[in-house]
Design goal:
heterodimer, A: 321 residues, mainly alpha, ABC transporter involved in vitamin B12 uptake, BtuC, two-stranded antiparallel sheet, 4 strands, 2% strand, disordered N terminus, B: 517 residues, alpha/beta, Rossmann fold, 3 domains, six-stranded mixed sheet, 24 strands, 26% strand
């Protein structure tokens, strides 16, 4: 197994690890403070709830990070989540077995990713534009398919999944682990992971070095679409309905998680663990603010400020190298 | 609002010969390195002062200190008899110190005129006087004798032309002291001549010029005095009439000049690649053969079709006619991927734009073409990755603390070694080097040439593209001369004179351009 932490030089690698720890430390600090500040935080119910909340964004953030590392952006993931809740709901209600409905829904996610790759590679559209277009269109298509109504899912086992847990940990969080480990191996220990970085750093140099740049770009967006579809299925399971307006602003939360986790929007810098921690920091803020009875409007302000502070310190760290 | 070149260019106030700038123990330390050891040097008004030295000798550091880009660690800078802080670029410009950098630092998306006046736009009632600026810019450009339009977007010009614009820009801001950092690295001979004319004219107007170059013949052509830096130390300053190339090279590297062009002859082996009447965008009817163990030089001016020929060979562009034979068999090369699979490797001309992933580690850059080979199943072998990278770093003597250092932190010469080095492990049969020693110092050049011999000894063939005649002349076993998209002459190793080859590449203006290319 490779031990290369990229992109980093040795001293910077320690920094990176330190940064990861700082984030983790920040997360733990928030948990400790909340545990003392509110009686309801450190309860099993709340913790499992927090893990469930954070899980969905965490999975999206990983896919988003793949895309951002190539120097792109995927604005569509929130819309894909909403759209795929509709697809999975319709298929299950049409009598498909759950496994087939889920598989077909995931393929829809892959198809959306393929479409993004096509728009960027073949049509030469900027990632921002093509994913912005799908972001609005998918919601529209979903609304057309459902006439704007929510679809109740008639399947108890399907909904039971999101409520279940193993070893006291919700299945939803196990899903994060199930996604994170292959993602980590993929990004840091396979050549495709290296290619993502190289395309984000200098696509021309990568191409001249024999990297199949179009394929790499396709791969990033397909992964992002696939992970968004997974989140769509999980969300449908959790709320028991298919509704195209679900997952509103998820794309922004995913991007924010990624950036808080140290991903550079200019590409070529990023990891898997960073965005994961970033997403749980965001969830904890929301969860904690709810418990502390902080006005939900303030939550948004706090989130925004936190993004500025964390990314600013990250920038200082990079320059300080 | 119609200012002329003369008004924009007030004559410097000092009479020639007096000291304009004095460095008194100027010193720069970075954490871990002593980039510039205390330098004592006085520049005279109106002189052209060349500074030579290997990459990493401290030239760039010196420039950065003089232009206020970086603060110095200690020492004094005395400008016209007065100690100055020179803490910011703005301060340096206000004094009249300007620099033209090796890599053009202008806005590619703006017009030539907008770039010329960037930061001091002409305006009336807060509105830009665009037409007036284009007119004035054109006047300045014409006045300098450059045949370039002021209204076009800068990015549409060649790198050489952009460099001329950068030089023109530096002359219009009351400059008294102008630093040229490797200005001719990307210029054709004709463009270089225009630049030299400009430099001499500025000297005539009393401007002090610092001229940094790796090309010795330019130093002797232009300079009045020359200073040599080695390992951050000023090892000597000479009047140009009292020194020669051999002495300077010796001062720079402690190595004799014969050792630079290191040419080993190998018995040519089997044919690796052959093109038969290959035509494409920018060139036509080119038939070239490369055999194992030989260097095939392609010489010509920029735009003569050499680069277009090799990029077509490399699958970047579609050929329009002709054949490519790889080891005797006709092949279709439709993409870089095809070319690489066959066993071709291209080290492109512009390493920053095409050759390197600057914000990725050295090791990753070196291994990029071979990740497939050093992976088993799906996973990259960490041990192989480390071994390959460390071996290249050691073999090529790439100066880097570790393979984890970012490529951007290396000097230009070492970056170039990465661009070349990443193909060594790949085991390519045909290496295409497009201007491999642009902006590279003598010592690194020698190392790169030695690398060529290593490749040849392993049975590879090399296509070497260069605008620098001595390079192809001293190294190529077969030398093809390109002019306007055609292969006009072929010579053996050192079988023709410099003058003949140059003549064939230029062919003056006898034949009217047929609108080709």
């Amino acid at each position: 197994m490779s031990t290369e932490a990229i992109p980093a030089e040795r001293s910077k690698r320690n920094f990176n690890a330190l940064f990861g720890l700082t984030l983790l430390g920040l997360l733990l600090l928030m948990w400790i403070v909340l545990a003392f500040a509110t009686p309801s935080f450190a309860t099993t119910l709340n913790i499992t709830n927090l893990l469930r909340q954070g899980s969905l964004i965490a999975i999206l953030a990983v896919g988003q990070t793949f895309v951002i590392i190539t120097g792109g952006i995927d604005l569509s993931v929130g819309a894909v989540v909403g759209f795929t809740t509709v697809i999975v709901a319709l298929l299950i209600n049409a009598g498909w077995p759950i496994w087939a409905a889920v598989l077909a829904t995931l393929l829809v996610g892959v198809a959306i990713g393929l479409f993004h790759g096509f728009g960027i590679v073949k049509m030469g559209l900027p990632p921002f534009i093509i994913t912005l277009a799908t972001m609005t269109s998918l919601r529209g298509i979903g609304l057309l398919m459902t006439n704007g109504n929510s679809i109740s899912i008639n399947s108890d086992p399907f909904q039971a999944f999101s409520r279940g847990s193993l070893l006291g940990i919700p299945y939803l969080f196990w899903m994060v682990i199930l996604v994170a480990i292959p993602s980590y191996v993929f990004l840091h220990h396979t050549r495709w992971g290296r290619y993502l970085f190289s395309v984000g750093s200098n696509a021309e140099a990568a191409r001249l070095s024999g990297v199949n740049v179009p394929r790499t770009i396709f791969m990033a967006y397909i992964l992002s679409g696939l992970l968004a579809a997974i989140v769509g299925v999980l969300l449908a399971s959790r709320i028991g309905i298919g509704n195209p307006t679900q997952g509103d602003t998820y794309e922004l939360q995913a991007i924010a998680s990624s950036v808080i986790g140290g991903t550079s929007l200019f590409g070529a810098i990023g990891s898997v663990h960073g965005p994961l921690i970033g997403s749980f920091i965001l969830s904890t803020i929301n969860n904690g603010a709810n418990l502390l009875n902080v006005n939900t409007f303030w939550q948004r302000v706090i989130t925004g400020l936190l993004i500025i502070v964390i990314v600013y310190f990250d920038g200082l760290r990079r320059r300080g190298k | 609002m119609t200012s002329t070149a003369q008004e924009l260019h007030p004559a410097p106030t000092l009479e020639p010969g007096r000291t304009i700038l004095e460095l008194n123990g100027l010193e720069k330390r970075y954490p871990g390195t002593h980039a510039l050891k205390p330098v004592h040097l006085a520049f005279k008004a109106g002189e052209i002062h060349a500074i030579v030295g290997e990459n990493g000798a401290g030239k760039s550091t010196l420039i950065k200190l003089l232009t206020g880009v970086m603060p110095r660690t200690s020492g004094e800078v005395i400008w016209e008899g007065k100690a100055e802080a020179l803490a910011t670029p703005y301060e340096a410009m206000a004094l009249g110190i300007n620099a033209v950098h090796q890599e053009v630092v202008l806005c590619r998306h703006l017009t030539v005129a907008a770039n010329m006046f960037l930061g001091e736009e002409e305006s009336r009632f807060g509105l830009l006087q665009q037409r007036a600026m284009v007119k004035d810019a054109q006047k300045i450009i014409d006045g300098l004798g450059f045949d370039l339009p002021a209204h076009v977007v800068l990015g549409d010009l060649t790198i050489g032309q952009q460099q001329l614009i950068a030089a023109a820009r530096a002359t219009v801001r009351g400059t008294k002291f102008l630093i040229f950092d490797e200005p001719t690295a990307y210029l054709t001979r004709k463009e270089a001549d225009q630049l030299f004319k400009l430099i001499r004219r500025l000297k005539g107007e009393g401007v002090t010029i610092i001229y940094i170059s790796h090309r010795m013949e330019e130093v002797f052509e232009l300079a009045d005095r020359v200073s040599v830096l080695r390992d951050g130390t000023l090892v000597g300053t000479r009047n140009i009439t009292e020194t020669d190339e051999a002495e300077l090279v010796k001062l720079m590297i402690n190595r004799s000049i014969e050792q630079i062009y290191h040419k080993e002859h190998f018995t040519p082996g089997a044919t690796i690649v052959e093109t038969k009447n290959l035509s494409g965008k920018g060139f036509e009817n080119v038939s070239v053969t490369v055999r194992a163990g030989e260097i095939v030089g392609l010489y010509g001016l920029i735009g003569a079709g050499r680069s277009e020929f090799v990029t077509t060979l490399y699958g970047r562009h579609r050929k329009s006619a002709g054949q490519i034979l790889w080891q005797g068999k006709e092949v279709q090369v439709n993409s870089e991927h095809d070319a690489i699979r066959l066993g071709m490797a291209l080290a492109p001309e512009s390493r920053r734009d095409q050759g390197l992933c600057l914000n990725l580690p050295v090791g990753m850059n070196l291994n990029l073409p071979i990740y497939k080979r050093i992976s088993s199943n799906f996973l990259i072998s960490g041990a192989k990755e480390k071994a390959e990278a460390d071996r290249q770093i050691a073999d090529l003597r790439i100066k880097t603390p570790t393979r984890h250092a970012l490529a951007s932190s290396l000097s230009g010469g070492n970056q170039q070694k990465i661009v070349i080095g990443k193909w060594l492990a790949h085991g390519a049969k045909l290496f295409i080097f497009d201007e491999p020693t642009v902006g590279v110092d003598v010592g690194t050049k020698a190392e790169i040439y030695r690398l060529f011999s290593t490749l040849l000894s392993k049975g590879a063939g090399i296509i070497l593209i260069s605008s620098y005649l001595p390079e192809v002349y001293e190294l190529a076993d077969a030398l093809h001369v390109f002019r306007r998209g055609k292969l006009v002459a072929t010579h053996g190793f050192r079988t023709a004179s410099h003058e003949d080859i140059l003549g064939q590449a230029l062919a003056e203006k006898q034949e009217k351009s047929g609108g080709q290319i």
